[in-house]
Amino acid sequence: MNRLDTIRAQHPLVICYTNDVVKNFTANGLLSLGASPAMSQAPEEAEDMLIPANALLINIGTLTKDREADMLKIAKTANKVGTPVVFDPVAVGASQYRKDFCKTFLQEVNVSVIKGNASEVLALVDNEATMKGTDSDQDLDAVSIAKKAHEVLKCAIVITGKIDVIIQDNQIYKLSNGSTFLAQITGAGCLLGAIVASFIEDDLKVDIETLIQAVAIYNIAAEKAEQIANDKGPGSFMIALLDCLSQVSETDYLNNCNKQEVK
């Protein structure tokens, strides 16, 4: 059974400590794919929630001082019980506050996957890097940034953009599926972080093919959603994306995944 079919048969639990803006969309996206979301943010229940969970997503989009401590406690509990952690450092380059928290988080927590745009991932390894809000600099060399981050942070890196870049165990792939509408709705990247978490097969060291499948299947669903939304606009696309996540198949992946290994 392929991973997508396994998700739909087993409904893996994904614990999402994510930002306030995207909780509903993230939960609906995971449900549409076939996973089971839980938006748990209480350290007091972390161990009970994380033991049966497939993975933990930590997304810092609406970071506050109180949430800093909770994120660290929950992520450390995930490490304790052996649940993989996916880290989404939203807008980390927009403020020194976010940079400082991410530095602390990555020093104290073992992370399996980091997912972010090129500017966000660069800010994790270069304290001089800046960004405007959540926007990424489209002129950055995502492959070079991915290589540096993988070397420094010792985990899988997923860089999103017009061309996605994935690196694990020094293997690098570029993926070129997707839709321009993804940049016009709130939470598209945040949902992808949760989708990646749902694909991890209870393994602290995720393999690159699993990451390729997660990213490509999401983006192929987005392509199908764009065809449905046609000229209606991003609101129609958002609804269509949820529908297409429930319908996208392994055959769609095999027939439509545009990937290229970088030597």
From TrEMBL:
The keyword Transferase applies. It is an enzyme of class 2 (transferase). Keywords: ATP-binding, Kinase, Magnesium, Metal-binding, Nucleotide-binding, Thiamine biosynthesis, Transferase. GO terms for molecular function: ATP binding; hydroxyethylthiazole kinase activity; magnesium ion binding. It comes from the Bacteria. Its EC number is 2.7.1.50. Substrate binds at M39, G187. CDD domains: THZ_kinase (cd01170). ATP binds at K115, T160. Its cofactor is Mg(2+). Pathway: Cofactor biosynthesis; thiamine diphosphate biosynthesis; 4-methyl-5-(2-phosphoethyl)-thiazole from 5-(2-hydroxyethyl)-4-methylthiazole: step 1/1. InterPro entries: Hyethyz_kinase (IPR000417), Ribokinase-like (IPR029056). The keyword Metal-binding applies. Gene3D superfamilies: 3.40.1190.20. One of its GO terms (biological process) is thiamine diphosphate biosynthetic process. It catalyses: 5-(2-hydroxyethyl)-4-methylthiazole + ATP = 4-methyl-5-(2-phosphooxyethyl)-thiazole + ADP + H(+). Catalyzes the phosphorylation of the hydroxyl group of 4-methyl-5-beta-hydroxyethylthiazole (THZ). Belongs to the Thz kinase family. This is Hydroxyethylthiazole kinase. It comes from Staphylococcus caeli. The lineage of its organism: Bacteria, Bacillati, Bacillota, Bacilli, Bacillales.
